[in-house]
């Protein structure tokens, strides 16, 4: 399994998707729609960033599990 | 001992016989008829809660996040999802989950942009936003696009379901037409009389049912195979990767699905789905809507991905270990049915059929309610102005029935002319990008102008059709190296064309906005991200109070001296609520598991007599609007 099969989709998903996510977050912060001075909004910022990282780590873990499985198939 | 005795598998049943065997079993009929009976009973029960159009379309804006999030899952998982994603899972492995697990990127803009705008501005339909942000012409264009799409989709839903049930029920004399009428009858009755409240509660039931059924099928499959180890070791390593190959094959590749689903699909789902918007408007507050959306994407959708794909993964493992039972070349559309028949008993098969039926019902009910909302708000009310709310409520019920009948007519059309089914798909693909572009730029770019919005509706589809006619020239440069399909009948750049469509529409919108004049900011107060604070003020009718307060549990008494929609709390309670007279509060039956069914919003006042400690005073009308029971305690908390 080569780079394009394994890693490029993950990098693209969380790279291009991450740019859109970050742009959205910056926009709502700069316009004051999300105001970190409100405790409730601060909690939401943590959830948003945590959700992004959580999904990225979940996909990463699944890729690593598949690679471990491939190594097992190849044998010693 | 194995769990779920009813669903234990017996000797392997050939898939072709499974449907007939299931329909001969009385337990199958008990499950299926019990399901239909329960759905109808829900509709009858919740009809009593509809007193206004706000109740009928938005459930009175009173519900808790958990109720909304499960009902959203039921809406999102369509009748075709089990067949489609099981087939995808069987062929492509764990990457069949991609469509369910790539919706997080637009959450900041949805949670802090679109959701508060529609909620605080009281926008009842997507086309209404178009008129308020732009002009009447854009509203008409949006209304036409959305109505044609949704009515067609209702028809496709009925037809898909009738075709799914036909192998099971045809031996008992049910024709396809009869099945369409049966399904439309059940769905039409409970939606027409029950409205959004019935939709939410039946979708709660149906969402839990379809999640449970899908996950149960995985558990039964693992049990049938001999455990997780056997399953895991039977699958090839590449099958276990969660994301597809970057650009191959042409009909299922990562980069195409990213642009078609994660970007265009996510914006369409979060920002343009009238049914979904109405569901969020049924939440008791923006905060609850945010919780529902976040929980849905973070927890419910990954679970749903496993539920709808799992049969495919189990099927692949079976095809490796027992190819005599499930050959590797099994058609993708048959995988769900065949796996269900292998790992469960004929009677248990009925349970899975009920789950697939639930998936249909929960999608169609939302669409019917949404069609009625658009028809009332964007067609009927603008033509017949100044009638009483009771008049509009009756019209809404009538239009729900009419939407169901139109869906039935569409189903019969689609059944006779397969190319209409394809045409509906093409219409959706052509109508969605302009809507996505206009709503997205409208919310997030103050400079976006009305002429540019109209141009996107008119020039956008033209450019997309041009891309359709010359795919290699126009879409090819954006294809990320995806090859054209080998089959000359295949659709070139099936998924990645979404990138071209979006660029074409956004290009028209941005280009024309730069040379035309935007509306003054004073005219779009509350309708753009930058003016959101104005929306909060307009909603409350005063300065919002964001100080954090407590939720209090209190007995209540009625005080006739209070003006309508008002409560009064003891001075000490006001302090604990961090609320002042004039603030908006939420009053709810203290039983959390009702999900807000008995609750209402009210204004905190200092008129009338101050209540004693432990008691909340309500104005007389709140007893009816909140559906409160005299002996029950209430909780009260400040909203804004």
Helices, strands, pairings?
The complex is a heterodimer of chains A (76) and B (640).
Chain A (H helix, E strand, L loop, with lengths): L2 H28 L8 H36 L2
Helix pairs in contact in A: 1-2
Chain B lengths: L14 H9 L2 H21 L6 H6 L6 H12 L4 H12 L14 H14 L5 H8 L2 H34 L6 H50 L2 H7 L19 H19 L1 H8 L4 H36 L13 H9 L2 H38 L5 H28 L1 H27 L5 H20 L1 H4 L22 H19 L16 H9 L11 E7 L7 E3 L2 H7 L6 E6 L9 E6 L10 E4 L1 H6 L8 E5 L2
Parallel strand pairs in B: 1-5, 2-4
Antiparallel strand pairs in B: 1-6, 2-5, 3-4, 3-6
Would you give an account of this structure?
The complex is a heterodimer of chains A (76) and B (640). Chain A has one domain. The mean pLDDT of chain A is 92. Chain A is built from 2 helices and no strands. In chain A, helix 1 runs antiparallel to helix 2. With 76 residues, chain A is mostly helical. Chain B has 640 residues and is mainly α. Chain B has 3 domains: 423 residues, Sodium/glucose cotransporter (Up-down Bundle); 66 residues; 93 residues, Barwin-like endoglucanases (Beta Barrel). Chain B is built from 23 helices and 6 strands. The longest helix of chain B has 50 residues. At the A-B interface, helix 1 and helix 2 of A face helix 6, helix 11 and helix 13 of B.
């Amino acid at each position: 399994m080569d780079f394009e099969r394994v890693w490029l989709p993950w990098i693209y998903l969380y790279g291009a998707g991450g740019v859109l996510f970050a742009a959205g977050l910056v926009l709502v912060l700069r316009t004051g729609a999300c105001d970190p001075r409100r405790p409730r909004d601060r909690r939401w910022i943590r959830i948003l960033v945590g959700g992004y990282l959580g999904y990225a780590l979940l996909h990463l873990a699944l890729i690593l599990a598949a690679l471990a499985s491939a190594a097992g198939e190849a044998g010693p | 001992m194995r769990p779920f005795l009813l669903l234990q598998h017996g000797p392997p049943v050939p898939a072709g016989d499974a449907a007939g065997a299931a329909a001969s079993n009385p337990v199958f009929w008990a499950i299926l008829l019990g399901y239909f009976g329960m759905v109808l009973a829900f509709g009858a029960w919740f009809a009593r809660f509809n007193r206004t159009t706000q109740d009928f379309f938005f459930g009175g804006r009173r519900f808790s996040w958990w109720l909304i999030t499960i009902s959203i899952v039921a809406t999102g998982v369509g009748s075709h999802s089990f067949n489609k994603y099981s087939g995808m899972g069987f062929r492509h492995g764990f990457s069949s989950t991609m469509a369910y697990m790539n919706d997080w990127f637009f959450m900041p803009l949805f949670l802090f942009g679109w959701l508060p705008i529609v909620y605080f501005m009281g926008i009842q339909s997507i086309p209404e936003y178009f008129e308020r942000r732009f002009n009447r012409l854009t509203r008409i264009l949006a209304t036409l696009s959305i109505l044609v799409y949704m009515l067609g989709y209702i028809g496709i839903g009925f037809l898909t379901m009738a075709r799914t049930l036909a192998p099971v029920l045809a031996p008992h004399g049910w024709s396809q037409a009869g099945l369409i009428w049966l399904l439309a009858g059940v769905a039409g009755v409970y939606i027409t009389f029950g409205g959004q409240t019935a939709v939410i509660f039946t979708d709660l039931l149906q969402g839990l049912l379809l999640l449970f059924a899908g996950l149960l099928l995985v558990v039964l499959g693992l049990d049938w195979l001999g455990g997780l180890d056997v399953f895991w070791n039977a699958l090839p390593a590449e099958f276990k990767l969660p994301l597809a190959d970057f650009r191959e094959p042409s009909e299922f590749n990562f980069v195409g699905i990213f642009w078609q689903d994660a970007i265009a699909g996510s914006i369409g789902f979060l920002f343009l789905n009238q049914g979904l918007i109405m569901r969020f408007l049924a939440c008791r507050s923006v905060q609850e809507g945010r919780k529902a959306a976040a929980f849905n994407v973070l927890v419910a959708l990954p679970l749903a991905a496993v539920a709808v794909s799992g049969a495919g993964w189990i099927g692949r493992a079976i095809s490796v270990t027992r190819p005599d039972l499930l050959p590797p070349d099994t058609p993708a559309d048959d995988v769900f049915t065949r796996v269900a028949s292998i790992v469960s008993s004929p009677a248990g098969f009925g349970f899975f059929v009920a789950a697939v039926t639930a998936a249909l019902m929960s999608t169609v009910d939302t669409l019917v309610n949404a069609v009625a909302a658009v028809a009332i708000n964007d067609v009927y009310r603008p033509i017949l102005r100044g009638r009483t709310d009771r008049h509009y409520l009756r019209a809404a019920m009538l239009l729900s029935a009419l939407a169901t009948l139109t869906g039935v007519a569409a189903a019969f059309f689609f059944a006779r002319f397969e190319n209409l089914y394809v045409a509906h798909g093409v219409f959706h693909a052509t109508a969605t990008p302009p809507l996505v572009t206009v709503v997205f730029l409208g919310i997030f770019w103050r400079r976006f102008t009305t002429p540019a919005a109209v141009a996107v509706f008119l020039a956008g589809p033209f450019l997309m059709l041009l891309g359709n006619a010359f795919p290699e020239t126009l879409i090819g440069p954006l294809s990320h190296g995806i090859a054209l399909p080998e089959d000359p009948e295949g659709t070139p750049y099936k998924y990645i064309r979404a990138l071209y469509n979006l660029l074409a529409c956004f290009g028209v919108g941005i280009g024309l906005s730069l040379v035309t004049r935007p509306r003054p900011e004073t005219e779009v107060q509350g309708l753009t991200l930058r003016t959101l604070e104005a929306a909060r003020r307009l909603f409350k009718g005063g300065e919002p109070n964001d100080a954090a307060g407590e939720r209090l549990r209190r007995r209540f008494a009625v005080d006739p001296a209070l003006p309508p929609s008002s409560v009064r709390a003891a001075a000490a309670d006001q302090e604990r609520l961090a609320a002042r007279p004039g603030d908006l509060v939420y009053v709810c039956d203290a039983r959390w598991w009702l999900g807000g069914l008995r609750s209402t919003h009210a204004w905190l006042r200092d008129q009338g007599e101050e209540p004693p400690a432990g008691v909340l005073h309500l104005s007389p009308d709140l007893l009816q609007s909140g559906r409160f029971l005299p002996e029950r305690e209430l909780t009260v908390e400040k909203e804004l």
